[in-house]
Amino acid sequence: MSSIKLQNLRKTFGPVEAVKSLDLEFANGEFAALLGPSGCGKSTTMNMISGLETPTSGDIYFGNTPVTHVPAGKRGVGFVFQNYAIFSHMSVFDNIAFGLKVRKLSGDDIKRKVQQVAELLELTGMLHHNAGRLSINDMQKVAIGRSMILEPQIFLLDEPFSNLDASFRFYMRGQLKRFQREIKQTMIYVTHDQVEAMSMADKIAVMDFGILQQFGTPDEIYNQPTNTFVANFIGSPSMNFMDCTFHQHNGAGLLTHHSGGRVSLDDKRSRLLEQNPDKSNAFILGIRPEYLHLHSQPAADSWWQTTVYMVEPLGSKTIVHLQLGTDIVQAIAPADFRAEPSTPQWLELPPDHIHIFGKSTEQAIR
Ligand code: ATP
User: Fold this and answer.
1) Measured in angstroms, how far is the CA atom of residue 18 from the centroid of ligand 1?
2) Could you identify the atom of ligand 1 that is nearest to the CA of residue 192?
3) Is the pLDDT of residue 336 over 80?
4) CA distances from 218 to 99, 182, 344, 363 (A)
5) Can you tell me the mean pLDDT for 96-101?
6) What is the domain partition of the chain in residue ranges?
7) What's the CATH code, domain 4-233?
8) Which terminus in the chain has less CB density within 10 A, N or C?
9) Inter-CA distances, 72 with 41, 47, 137, 247, Å
């Protein structure tokens, strides 16, 4: 086990700056996810940690040991890629046992360890099958087993389940999380799937355009996003964003939307918006669909009048699209909610669930 520190890490490919000045620290035994859209620099970061790529500048430490220029084979890192890497002419047993044979473990020890890994990955009945004839799902299990069995101090997985079918992905996510909890290796998992990152990782590093946007627990990332990119990337349906203007009215701070909807702000938030360095009154109000409460009758002045645009029944819940001036926002309503388009509704915005972002900076103000 080992912590990992990335210090001012940068990687360019000709004119492309794949990773820009990345500072990140993964704690010993942590399960971390690198999350972001395609091309944001996740794989390049992983390749630098594993030693497959040399950084253009910056440093990598495992614990207190600098490893930036240590060859990949000497870093003690296990790596599983999106495309399964197995010996297709060998049996499942020999594939999983391969690294232990290289390390010259005794036959009994190898058998015992292969059995353990095979049980965890549900490969026990296939140990003597030819690996090249397995399904893609099972080949990826073998690839994971081959790395896992060596109990590397650091385990890196780059979108390992993205070629697998959905139910198998769901199953493997659970298995991997259990395995990591048992072995407590430092594990870094690359994905562009926010559900995968949220459901498995202790900490998530969200990247965009080679830049770290936020590093935090799933709760922090979901409930306290640092900017509109993170707020929008995490959650499905994603956060609603509404342009608003800020002004004082009878001593109280108010955010007003062009539809006429208003939110009263407490003193702390009012002060923060007044001190906004770009001196603009323009802000973005964000609220997640599950916190937009719908009412069929107005009962409070603070509720925003809206009309139903479209209703999506999903069985366990209903997603309601609502017209608010020229904006369409989404609210999550109970499973039995039904309404025709243009039906009036009133929206309650609980103050504790409102996020405010600078219009020009797109950074959270809190
Ligand atoms: P994906 O999820 O699609 O794999 P990613 O977030 O892992 O994307 P990277 O593969 O790290 O992103 O790529 C980051 C940027 O660097 C992209 O613009 C990519 O085209 C570029 N890039 C990566 N590897 C190379 C390379 N060997 N040569 C040139 N450009 C590269």
Assistant:
1) 6
2) 2
3) yes
4) 34, 20, 36, 19
5) 93
6) 4-233, 240-358
7) 3.40.50.300
8) C
9) 19, 9, 27, 57
